[in-house]
Design a protein that fits this description.
alpha/beta; Rossmann fold; six-stranded mixed sheet; 9 helices; binds adenosine-5'-triphosphate; binds magnesium ion
């Protein structure tokens, strides 16, 4: 489904991604763990075309979305189209404060699919909010919602554009501990529906439970990867062991 090959990205003198390569199957869940500053967010931003990699390739279902060797100049319109393959749920929800929960979900489909029936989009929005357990909150504005509820609206909003791959960047790290459960529950249910997902997370226990495959990153490189049993339960690399020890404390 997704193949990333030798992806590199620097900001000025700082090399943030150094030849990052991995691939994932359709319907699988990939967890990315790693210490602060290791390049996890940058990797997700590159996949979502919010950041342009310096080199490497990104291939989705046989379709080359990015090839650093080509140095092609992509138009804003092309980039926007590529971006639609991926959905991104941010750490801080990033909802539009002036819109209700339902409007947050329906806004992008309304703008992008001009020909589509408004009622149909509205029904889809209500269905998605119901799916994340917010059927009673559709007309609330973000400031009237808890962090966990806002994050669930953000997930429904990302799903509304029917991405091939849904990416989460530490979806629970801005939440009080008692609210993380409801968000993890939604991610778990998406997992059961075979949504293809990449989850950057500090919740090591959750990663072990939900992911098919785990990547541990440090300083812009993939240090270790494999099944959760391999990487989390029986890490072979010194850096992975040290990282996990710190997080298990
Ligand atoms: N736009 C930018 N300009 C300059 N440096 C940046 C930029 N974005 C990220 N960096 C740097 O790239 C490195 C990796 O950052 P990144 O946000 O990808 O790490 P991360 O693994 O997501 O960390 P965290 O766990 O704290 O979220 C950091 O050293 C950061 O300062
Ligand atoms: Mg980050």
């Amino acid at each position: 489904m997704l193949k990333v090959d030798k992806l590199c990205k620097s900001f000025g003198q700082t090399q943030v991604l150094r030849e990052v390569s991995f691939s994932m199957e359709k319907g699988s869940c990939l967890a990315i763990i790693g210490s602060s500053g290791s390049g996890k967010t940058t990797l997700l931003r590159c996949l979502n075309f919010l950041e342009q990699p310096d080199s490497g390739t990104i291939t989705l279902a046989g379709d080359t979305l990015f090839d650093g060797a080509l140095r092609q100049k992509t138009t804003e319109k092309e980039t926007r189209k590529k971006r639609l393959h991926f959905g991104l749920v941010f750490q801080n929800f990033n909802l539009f404060p002036q819109y209700t929960a339902l409007q947050n979900v329906t806004l992008a489909p309304t703008l992008l699919e001009k020909g589509r029936d408004k009622n149909e989009i509205c029904e889809m929005g209500m269905r998605l909010l119901k799916q994340v357990g917010l059927e009673n909150r559709m007309d609330n504005y973000p400031h009237q919602l808890s962090g966990g509820q806002q994050q669930r609206v953000a997930i429904a909003r990302a799903l509304a554009l029917e991405p091939d791959i849904l990416c989460f960047d530490e979806p629970t790290s801005a939440l009080d501990p008692e609210l993380t459960g409801e968000v993890l529950k939604v991610i778990r249910s998406l997992r059961q529906q075979n949504m293809t997902m990449i989850v950057v997370t500090h919740e090591i226990r959750f990663a072990r439970e939900v992911a098919d495959y785990v990547i541990f990153m440090d300083d812009g490189v993939i240090v270790e990867e494999g099944t959760p049993q391999q990487v989390i339960d029986a890490p072979r690399q010194e850096r992975t062991v040290r990282f996990l020890e710190r997080y298990m404390e």
